[in-house]
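Problem: given the chain below (319 residues), write out its structure.
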Amino acid sequence: MKLWHPTSENIWQGRNDLAEADNALRVFQTIKQPANFSPEEFPHHIALLGFECDEGVKLNHGRPGAKLGPEYLRQSLANMASYDGHERLVDLGNIRADPEKLAEAQNVLSEAVYECQHQNMRTLIFGGGHETAFAHGMGIYRAFPTQRVGIINFDAHLDLRNSAQPTSGTPFRQLADYCQQHQRPFNYTCIGASLASNTQALLDEANHLDVTIIWDTQCIESMLDKVKEQIQNVINQVDIIYMTIDLDVLPIWQMPSVSAPAALGVPLERLLPLIQLICQSKKLQAVDLVELNPLYDIQGMGGKAAARLTWQLVHWWNG
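Solution.
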């Protein structure tokens, strides 16, 4: 497959505790690592793919470096204990964007997602900038042409920008355009959005597209039950869920390593119960985590937070 390469050999490493017991296992010991991109060999598993791309971040005037995120997140995840669900992970390598060729890389990722879903695999993508979402979403819409697809985005930003050139700020506007062209409903929910980080023009666009917005100020402890009700209503309206997590939804003190760190954000301990509801809905078909930029991490804090989030959602992800 064009632009594809396997995960680096030194990534999946960790502490070996097998001398203690046969079940003293860690993720690096249970993840499957085929030599080639071969989704047909792993039905009913979770395809882990990296999207080494920050071309959209550059075009959106952000801080480049997210193309290093996939390997960094794998490394942060490798030494965590392996429990139910983690053994279904299959590392199918990375797609690496060529400079100034965003559309080409997105097309390749979309095709890879389609192939994995066609082979009854779910897809877990490590970005990359949030331009990952257009490619991932396209693959899902193509794989489920008659199903009602719901997009749930955990993000400080709505990413509905109007731009002559696609960027990391345009993916959901692009998916809305695709749905309109193909006469499909556009069901998009953004959770954790910051009013301070979205202009009135973006709110007008969200209103025009009938987007459900749950603001960061609503994701407080006393209102979490109400937020869960709203999420459950979204789940009830669709057949398939594509969940995308821009790690800048987390506060800067948990996630410094993104292009646009959040002053407020939604802390991990509040985010996890919301994600658990989606993971256990039996409708979740695709997940990505995007915008992790190791160039700006502090003592591995961002990598650890992203890895714990990944670890937890895979553990909860059932079908």
